[in-house]
Amino acid sequence: MRTLIVIPILLTLAGLVSSSRLAADETKGEDAGKLVGTWKMVSARYGGRESDLPNRLTTLKHITPAQYMWVSYDQDGKVVRTAGGPYTLKGETMESTPEYGMSADFEVIRGKRQSYTVKVEGRRWFQSGTLSNGMTLEEVWERVETK
Prior knowledge:
The chain is an alpha+beta fold. Helix content is 25%, strand content 46%. The protein is built from 3 helices and 10 strands. It has an 8-stranded antiparallel barrel. It is globular.
């Protein structure tokens, strides 16, 4: 009797995994692979001004085939800002919609589509654009290698 219950559950789970993988592949296209991984912010300009954010906080961005997430934490490891959600990448255009996070800067763009120009050169990722709130950004990220 248990086998009759377990088999439909396993088939349902397998279908969900397959369809989510397919949806992620279709959404991201062939360009997504160049960003998948972990990145550390090394410099930033917001509103045309150099930011000291990379000196004050460690900011990491994690990119998977389906989602992105960034987090900033202080020297004690306390998370002070974060956001994430789905994204698409086509050529040099990345679009994302922050769905979850915490901080005042997240609240301003929550649920709104953001569009960026991205370029990867070696271990560096250059990201620029204008946020939905009108703030311009230019960020440089460096790929975090495994040790």
